[in-house]
């Protein structure tokens, strides 16, 4: 980029429409999920290693506050990333690729994700 | 065609199709696992380990883990390339990510077949 045009990258002065916010959240949840793989693989490993390991994982998910929080957090990130991913497929199919359509899909993404996150919370807690 | 030697397939179009295909595999796997746990409220070790001893489940799981590895790399490559501008820091970060993905992949396969 050797352009002489002025560049504004001051995030405080830039207006972020809803689709921009849902897009950055998609990225953030992706990064969170990658970091969270440590917990997911640990749980899978322990739960399949032995009877004691399985009970330890089940016990942690049933009684340990921190484990519940991590599980709910990762399920929430997964739910959002999943829904926002479906939105990508809808955009790939050239559906609602307009300014209004983008805002509407962003709104639907948030609503559906919130519902799934609440359901995940009920499941975990 | 513009290529980037650090991207997964060195082509945006290939990255795009890999991201979609791996997403579909992981979506099916996720829905299956969540559904399985939901439908087995009294899940015990014998049932759980029995599921993962099935050949089809191991194939399904390895497929999901390989999809995860590809998906994670395409996604994290995009994000790190977008936000980390100094080349040395970016390449260092991406190297750590590749190593982590490799560890997860081997770990996952080891879990499936039991060390």
Task: Describe this entry's structure for a reader.
The complex is a heterodimer of chains A (125) and B (115). Chain A has one domain: 3 helical TM bundles of succinate and fumarate reductases, CATH 1.20.1300. In chain A, 79% of the residues lie in helices and 0% in strands. Chain A has 125 residues and is mainly α. In chain A, helix 1 packs across helix 2, helix 2 packs across helix 3 (65-92) and helix 3 (65-92) packs antiparallel against helix 4 (99-124). Chain B has one domain (12-114): 3 helical TM bundles of succinate and fumarate reductases. Chain B has helices spanning 12-39, 45-53, 55-83, 87-113. Chain B is elongated and about 50 Å long. The chains are: A mainly alpha (125), B mainly alpha (115).
Strand-pairing-aware structural class of chain B: mainly alpha
How helical, in percent, are the residues of chain B?
Answer: over 70%
C-alpha geometry of chain A? elongated
What is the CATH class designation of chain B?
A: Mainly Alpha
Quick overview:
The complex is a heterodimer of chains A (125) and B (115). With 125 residues, chain A is mostly helical.
What descriptors fit this protein?
heterodimer, A: 125 residues, mainly alpha, 4 helices, elongated, B: mainly alpha, 3 helical TM bundles of succinate and fumarate reductases, transmembrane (chain A), electron transfer activity (chain A)
């Amino acid at each position: 980029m050797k352009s002489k045009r002025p560049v504004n990258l001051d995030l405080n002065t830039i207006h972020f429409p809803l689709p921009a916010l849902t897009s950055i959240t998609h990225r953030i949840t992706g990064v969170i999920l990658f970091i969270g793989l440590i917990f997911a693989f640990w749980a899978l490993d322990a739960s399949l290693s032995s009877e004691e390991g399985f009970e330890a994982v089940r016990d942690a998910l049933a009684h340990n506050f921190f484990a519940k929080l991590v599980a709910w957090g990762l399920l929430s990130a997964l739910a959002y990333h999943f829904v926002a991913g479906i939105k990508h497929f809808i955009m790939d199919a050239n559906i609602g690729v307009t300014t209004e359509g983008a805002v509407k899909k962003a709104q639907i993404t948030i609503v559906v994700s919130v519902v799934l996150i609440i359901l995940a919370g009920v499941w975990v807690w | 065609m513009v290529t980037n030697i650090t991207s997964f397939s060195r082509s945006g179009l290939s990255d795009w199709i890999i991201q979609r295909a791996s997403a579909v595999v992981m979506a099916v796997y996720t829905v299956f696992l969540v559904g399985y746990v939901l439908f087995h409220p009294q899940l015990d070790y014998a049932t759980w380990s029995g599921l993962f001893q099935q050949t089809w489940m191991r194939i399904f799981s390895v497929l999901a883990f390989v999809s995860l590895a590809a998906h994670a790399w395409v996604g994290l490559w995009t994000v790190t390339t977008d936000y980390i501008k100094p080349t040395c820091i970016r390449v260092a970060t991406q190297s750590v990510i590749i190593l982590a993905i490799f560890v997860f992949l081997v770990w996952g396969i080891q879990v499936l077949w039991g060390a």
